[in-house]
Structure formats: C-alpha cells, structure tokens
Amino acid sequence: MGLTASKPESPYAKLKEQLETLGNRHPFGDADLLRVSRCLAYLYSSNANPTFDTQQGIEDGKDGTLGSASVSLGNSFLSDWAEYCSTLPSADFSRDVVDGKFDDLLLVDPKILAFEASIKGGQSKIDSNMDKILVERQRISYIMKIIEEHVLPPDFGEIFHRRVFSPVTSDDSNGEPNAIEIDINDKTAWIKLDKFFNGISDSSMRGSRKALTSLFRCCCRSNLSKGNGMANTNTYAPAKDLIDLAYRLSLATAIYDGYMINQGQLDLKKIHDRQREMNKKEKEAAKEADAEKGIEDDEVEEDDEEEEEMIVPIFDPESLYPKDIGNSLVQSLLDYSSTSNQPASPSYGMSGPALNQSGLSSSSGNKATNRDSNMVSLNIFLTWSESVAPCLSSCLETFIHRIFFPDKPYPPSRTEFFFPNLRGRHSAFFPSPASPYLFNFASMTPSLGGAWHRLYTSDEDGLSFNRLQNSLLGYSGPTLTVIKEVEGGGIFGAYTHTAWKESKDFYGDSNCFLFTIAPSVSVLRPRGVGNKYMYCNSESRSRGYDGQAHGIGFGGTVDKPRLFISESFDECMAATGDLTFEAGPLLPKRNADGDFGNPNPSKYFDLESLEVWGVGGDEVVAEALGDRHKQRELVAANIRKARKVDKAQFLDDFQSGLIESKAFNHRAQMRGRGDCRIDEDKKNNY
To answer: Cα–Cα distances in Å, from 160 out to 8, 61, 227, 234?
Structure first.
C-alpha cells in the first residue's frame, strides 16, 4: 500500500509507526487498520455534521481531528459504518503529494473530503465509479434501515456503541495501557482510537468468549457506581435477552446477505436483458437485410432458439423478521445456571441503558440489584455456550464483519454463522423461514447452518420405512433427523456426519450427537468411550433371522439402540443413556396421567412426525445428492442386469437339469425303449 519504506526521511514514517503500534495491539493488517482509522476520523470529524453521540462533547473542538467531535452523518452508528467503511476512496501515498497529504491517523484524509464533496456536487452523474459507490451506499442504507427498524432491538446501535466502543478507564483495561504508547500530542484521540479497535477486535476477532462478553455487555443489568459508570461485583443479564439478541443478530446478517446478493443478481439480469435485446435487434436487422436481397425466409437457416429470459425473484426481507424466541434455548441456559456452582461473573464497565426481551432499553431504574431466577452471570453464559451452543458467538462476529468489512471474504480461521435456509420446502417443525428452532440448530454446529435439503417427511411421504430408507441410503452428507412424539410433544433427534448404509453393525464418527429441541435444548455429544453412533438395518437384509433390531438407531446396542425408529414405526425408543453418548433424557416429562414425576419414565414413545434433512450448505448438499443418485443408478443397473436372461444358457440349464423342469422328462422316459435309438454323439438326435 505504499508504506514499505523504512527510512526516517520517508514522508509517511509517522503513519507507518502508528500502524505498526496499532498492529501490535490489535489483530488487523495495515490495510484494515487504515480503512477503519480513516473512516473513524471522517465520521467523528466536525466536517461530517455529527449528530449521534452528543455526550462525547461535540463542542470540545472543531479542528477536524478524531478527538474533536463525535459520530455521525445523521443515520445511526451501525448504518453509518456499514455505509461508509467499505465505500470510502483508498488513500493516496504517492511521493509527489504535497498538499492534502495523509500522514496521521488522527486527522481526516483530505482525499475523503474532496471525494465526498464531489459526490454531493453531483459528480457521480458523470463519473461511473462514483455512481457505483453512490448506488452501493443507497442499497446499504436501505437494508440497514430495515434491519434497525424491524430486526434488531430498538437503540441497539447506540447501546452497542456505548457498551463496547466507549473509552475505557484505568479500572477497565484488563491490564493493558489506556492509550497507545507512542509520542503523540492528543492522548484523548488515541484513547478513543485504541478503544474503538478494541471494540471491533473483541466483537469479531478475538474468539468466542470475547464476542459473547460483548453481547453480554449489551444486555446486562447492574448497579452502576456514580461517576465512572462501572458495574459492581455481581453483574447479571436476563437469559432471554441474551438468546433473543443473538437470534436477531443472526437474522440481521441473513437479511443483509439475502438483499445484497439479490441486488447483485438483479444487476446481472439487467446486463443479460440488455444483451438479449441487442441480440434480438441484430436478428431483426439481419432479417430485414435478407428481405431486401430477396432471400426468402425458408432459404435462411434456422436460428438458434431465442435465449430464455433470466428470472430473479425479488428478495423479501419480511420473511426473515424475527419471531418470539420462545423458551427452549432460554430454559436450557436457566437450567444450566440453576445446577451450576460457578461464582458470579466479574464486573465490567457498562454505562447507559441495557436491552430487554421486549426490545426496549431499560433505564437504571429497572436494573436488578439481586439475581432472580431469569438472570445469569457472564461465567455461566460463557460455559453454557461452549457446551450447548458453541456457534452462538458467531452471530455477533459475523454481523460485525458485515458492518466493517462487507467487501472482504470471511476469514477462514473463524466460524461464519449462516442462518438455515429451507429453500421453500414445507416442514412440520419449522413453520417459517425465521423459525427460532432453526436458530437453535445452527447454534449447535456450523454444519447445521446454510442450505438444507429435505430428504424425508412423514407428512408427505407417510410413515413408510421403505421410503425413509430409500431417502437415506447413498446420501453421503451430514443429516439431521428430527422426531416429535405424541404424548408430551417433545422434539428431539440425532445429527449424523457419515454416509448412510445398510448394515448389521453400527458405524459413524464422533461428529454425531443426540439432541432435544423442545421443551428445552440439550446436546448429548459422544463420551469418547463407545463407537455405536448410527445404525440402519432392515428386516429384508437378513430376512429377520439375525435377532437384531430392525429400523434406524443411534447409540445403545444392535438389539436395543438408545434412540430407535422401528421398521414398523411401533415401539420406538428413546432411552436416557448408553455407552456412546452423554447421559440425559430425550423424552420430556410425562403429564399427570402418564409417568410425570417417575424417576424412570417409559422409554417408549408414539411417533407423531418425522423429518430427515440433508444439511451442511449448498456445496455439501449438492455433492451428497449426487452420490445418492450414483448409488441409485448402480442399484438400478444391477437389477436390470439380473433381469436380463441369456436364452441359450437358459436352455442349456434346462437340458442339463440344473433348472428343474418337466419339459425334458421325455428323454429319460425314452431311454431303454426298443423302438428308440439315441445317438449320444449328436445333439438333438433322438
């Protein structure tokens, strides 16, 4: 980027030193540090007409430096950053630049000011590059407005800014210096810059615990000490607020991606339509030229068929508006909290209002002074997430990446969160594309995010084991089996990561796990002892003589799998433990007329609905479906081969007696008769 010179006389030596110091403290490369610093200086400068955060002291100075004013351009913290961070012009580090040279991260780059002035002056009408940037900003502004009005909790951007990006005090630095150790004149500006990068890093680059802590800060309730806005030693957050915020962030990312991808497809459609129209006009012109030459239509060779119109459905963000998050994942967190002996979480600086489950901010009058049954500590939240919902932190990390670096690919070293996409297929378990159950699944493992493909559903395919087995055999990708039982309405099942096959033995790998999704979420992962992960054995394979269970199962033994769907769909089982998976109930407690309160409730259940989904994303699903198609073709070829008869060989088998038949009994009967002569050396000579 033009900053490779290390000689002191370099005009950008100061800037290089600043970037090096920032790079030592934060997990960003020089290009990202430059981008964020330049955008921050511009948005915080008085030239940007700041309106967002008046508490920071806009009147402290009007000199156009980072410390002199606050954000933003009149939209919101999130919208402004999404709109400008990826669309500002790149810095100019040419050595011949004298006036307007950018050599200090604390100052606004003059090139940005000139660029923005050109856009406001209408230069984009004659500059195609500016026009593209203006269109991109309009699209981002449009979708971010929808996201902030209909998806994220009200005031989330402001609360997130105050809780995560606000300047630190000496008691809230986790042992790190407040400001960058560099020779500077404006320490306040450097504190603000350092803290801002700290907020981005914690929210998206420093691992799941840091990201979950940032999410926790937005939801916490605490008594705030006067003066410095610090929390007391006992800091808690409502469990439902935490889960609901993560759910909304995942939907915000899905809506942003869906809209921007759809806009790109519409752009391609415009290009396609223009080309199609040009081709049509050329053909018409050619016909007119032929007509003038007297060439008849039947003398002209047939043209290729007209190119089909490209159809791009319009993305509807309303289909992904959040629903009530429900209680299943929340109850799991509360159950874990009630049985845990962990100490309360440490205090964190959390000033300003917090979010609550209704989406409204809570003032200090609503802060809980004592923990109640619906509150959890940070330590509880972190350890529970690692066990039950390890992908929960990716909701915030992925969303922040879309805000600051939407034009850059997601780092492969981090886990990107994809909200499951059923691709319009009906489901008895997921009534809408934004179903909270889908979010619950995607929080368990990355393989449950992205595109799903329905392999089997009892609602449409019926309770037919033949159809169930046919949908599974040969499918090589990960699958999700979801079961609903009749009596308690419990929803549970199994995730598998290995290709299905028919066998008398168990197979699979340690990526498999059992789960419950309602009334509470639990994930029962392999214990590392047994290896009986998945099982598929029909009665037709052994004709019922193997003495084993016939159906599909997970865990347990071949005669009694822990979770078992029988071939007849009767006497299905869901036991509480086995040697392969962690112990825990799969069935909910029974009602008062059943086994409610029984320490050993019945392990048998009546099946109400059953679905199997191929999961893992578009590429994984497409490859697995291709493998299943190849398997089916192979089976069909073997059947055709078995049906094909060699007539000559078939007749010889009859004649030799290999195939029993009365058709040639007369030969044996004729032998020994005086009037019958048989020449053994000649065939068919009787």
So the answer is: 40, 25, 20, 21
Per-residue pLDDT, averaged over 216-222, amounts to: 85
Q: Does the pLDDT at position 176 exceed 90?
A: no
Say if CB 589 and CB 488 are below 8 A apart: yes
Are 534 and 482 contacting, i.e. CB atoms less than 8 angstroms apart? no
Altogether, the residues listed in the chain come to a count of 686
* pLDDT value, residue 94: 73
pLDDT in tens, 317-328: 999 999 999 999
Structure tokens given for 162: 């105050």
The set of long-range contacts for 385-388, using a CB threshold of 8 Å and a minimum separation of 24, is 385/208, 385/212, 386/208, 387/336, 387/523, 388/332, 388/333, 388/336, 388/443, 388/444, 388/521, 388/522, 388/523
* Contact indicator for 23, 29 with CB cutoff of 8 Å: yes
Predicted local distance difference test score (pLDDT) of residue 619: 94
Class of residue 672 by CB neighbours under 10 A (exposed 0-12, middle 13-18, buried 19+): exposed
> Which token pair is 54?
């008046």
Do 377 and 236 meet the contact criterion of CB atoms below 8 Å apart?
yes
Q: What is the DSSP string of 234-276?
A: --EEEHHHHHHHHHHHHHHHHHHHHHHHHHHHHHHHHHHHHHH
Q: How far is CA 581 from the centre of its chain?
A: 25
Nearest Cα residue to 400 out of 253, 242, 275, 296:
253
Copy the structure tokens of residue 602.
Answer: 């019945």
Mean pLDDT score, 146-164: 93
CB 144 within 8 A of CB 157: no
> 3-state class of 143 per DSSP?
helix
Average pLDDT over residues 322-346: 83
Omega before 110 cis (within 30°)?
Answer: no
pLDDT at 658: 57
Percent of the chain predicted with pLDDT > 70? 74
**Cβ neighbours of 448 (radius 10 Å):** 23
Phi/psi of residue 534, nearest 5 degrees: -145, 155
Q: Report d(CA 596, CA 592) in Å as an integer.
A: 6
Q: What is the pTM of this model?
A: 0.83
- 214 has pLDDT over 50: yes
